[in-house]
Design a protein that fits this description.
Oligomer: homodimer
CATH topology of chain A: Farnesyl Diphosphate Synthase
Strand order of the largest sheet of chain A: 1-2
Structural class of chain A: mainly alpha
Low-confidence stretches of chain A: 1-21
Number of strands of chain A: 2
Helix content of chain A: over 70%
Number of domains of chain A: 1
CATH superfamily of chain A: Farnesyl Diphosphate Synthase
Order of helices and strands of chain A: HHHHHEEHHHHHHHHHHHH
Mean pLDDT of chain A: 90
Largest sheet of chain A: 2 strands, antiparallel
CATH class of chain A: Mainly Alpha
Chain lengths: 341, 341
């Protein structure tokens, strides 16, 4: 974590094909991604049209497909062949399905009314159909994983288990004035990074990497997931609503121990007091708390933490042979720091 | 379905060991069941103690373990060896986990406050932790299935998918005055029988049966599941609350198209009218509707439908070689008709 403060974008060696990769790092796996997208769409077509409608409403509603892109890039960057690309595509779809299922269930848990700038599935379809549609997507992921070897299924299942445990841990720390950064890391490791970790691991394994390489790509997923969630937490505070697709300060309102909240509670006695007194986060109190969370020093500190993860990721990437896929992975990971959505 | 009206219990050929089997048909797989129970308990031990607590609260709360018993008996009745019993035990646990997960999610959907005579997990732990604990049990089942071959994982996953579709179909028919018996069968085939179908199929497959035998045991599961659900629907109307562990007439109150409701709506203009007018099912209206549903002719008709399934099951059982396991299966299936819990 020593080099945490800066990200030297210039040091990324750019190959000839890098211009396209820099403007859209996923372009290099465009064909694989299109195949994944087509199959994902087919899998959502349930015999019950309401299930299909809810799934499509969420999945077609503008997700970034970060998990499938990550898996496909890792697979290719590890030298994965065309021969087994179907497996990598299925893994990519399975993880996107699991992620989508958790979004539906999260909206129920948080009573989230807006997602990606539109009414959430919960707001539109009510909670029973939304809950069941989430279960349906879990089952589809499970079905898809059937073709994999036991250790790969276990990896995916364990990521899901950690995910549920992360949710409960986050619930346990809600409205806490004393959650530590270590607590925070544990929550987001389980809640967000576990799927990226599993994605990196499975993709490297399918590509035929030796165990050292599989381990490296697992760690790559972990750091990528951590950086992603840290920036997500920052965006929740910074907004604006039009970009993040939900009200600014949602985490704060719901008492979620997000990165800015945990940092501020440790450094700002006023916020700590507000949390300890369980001040209702609305009106003037909410505005004041948001102001504290937007303190430029605090934002810089949070960003530096995410940047530290990105630096670790870039170090790990050096263990791979140079390739346009590796460059795209580097670009995707770097992008996390500056993303606005 | 011709022999629907009577069940000739005497015609079951009883071997020497049958006395014990008749008083407790599961006794013959007691050791396997105990092994399944021990492993199931271990699997519920999450890193998050709240998840473990909710799972144990449900699973230790007096379930009948009908699915594990069914799977283990089918496995043994099909000649399954001790060598692969671990696989059969894992399949039994996986199906019980899936069933338990759906109970937690069902309680959320139906706002069920009582289950098995105790406050439901929802009533005790609130809906977010209950929802997540359900997801956790799905994931544990998924993890356990990792060791199976692709086609077995698919069978389990497809049962889960059907299960979610059955839930939504049931929701679609809520408060319907015109749901047909065909609709009803489709709902319970998906919602309840799909897991028994998968259980029979997987158990026979693991036992090394040829495809005809696997097909027979799938059908056995199907009929067993249908009979079980039909009697469950009757018990909801007949009670009493102390035995069924929840308020009498819950299905009626919630507008669920249960067997008595669907039969009565087709035969009794008064009930049909009540359903059409969406009469609030409480107080005198509820009592009157319950009285209609308890009409002895209607109850006999519903029971005959369940008995028809049992007859089909007994025919299927004849395809197996005689064995004490087969006798126990027959006893378990016969028991469905007269069970009071």
């Amino acid at each position: 974590m020593k080099k945490a403060k800066t990200i030297d974008l210039a040091s990324r060696r750019a190959p000839a094909s890098a211009n396209r990769a820099l403007s859209n790092p996923a372009a290099i796996v465009e064909a694989d991604l299109a195949a994944a997208e087509a199959k994902l769409t087919r899998l959502l077509d349930s015999n019950e049209s309401l299930i299909a409608e809810i799934c499509h409403y969420l999945v077609d509603g503008g997700g970034k497909r970060l998990r499938p892109i990550f898996i496909l890039l890792v697979y290719r960057a590890c030298g994965g062949s065309d021969e087994k690309i179907e497996d990598a595509i299925d893994a990519a779809i399975a993880l996107e399905l699991i992620h989508s299922a958790t979004l539906l269930h999260d909206d129920i848990i948080d009573a989230g009314r807006l997602r990606r700038g539109k009414p959430s599935a919960l707001a539109r379809y009510g909670f029973a159909p939304t809950l069941i549609a989430g279960d349906y997507m879990f089952c589809r992921a499970f079905e898809l994983c059937g073709r994999f070897e036991e250790h790969l299924v276990r990896t995916a299942a364990q990521a899901c288990i950690e995910l549920t445990e992360g949710e409960v841990m986050e619930g346990r720390l809600r409205h806490s004035a004393s959650a530590t950064i270590a607590d925070y890391r544990q929550v987001i490791t389980r809640k967000t990074a576990s799927l990226f970790y599993a994605g990196g691991k499975v993709a490297a394994d399918l590509a035929g990497m030796p165990s050292g390489g599989i381990d490296a790509m697992s760690r790559l997923g972990l750091t990528m997931g951590l950086a992603f969630q840290m920036i997500d937490d920052l965006l929740d505070v910074l907004g604006p609503e039009e970009k993040i697709g939900k009200p600014v300060g949602s985490d704060l309102r719901e008492g979620i121990p997000s990165l800015p909240v945990v940092l501020a509670a440790a450094r700002n006695p006023e916020l700590k007091q507000m949390l300890q007194n369980r001040v209702e986060m609305s009106g003037a109190a909410f505005q004041r708390a948001l102001e504290i969370l937007r303190d430029p020093k605090l934002i810089a500190e949070a960003r530096a933490m995410a940047a530290a993860e990105v630096m670790i990721a870039r170090d790990i990437l050096r263990e791979l042979r140079p390739s346009p896929y590796r460059d795209s992975l580097a670009a995707i990971i770097d992008e996390q720091i500056d993303r606005e959505v």
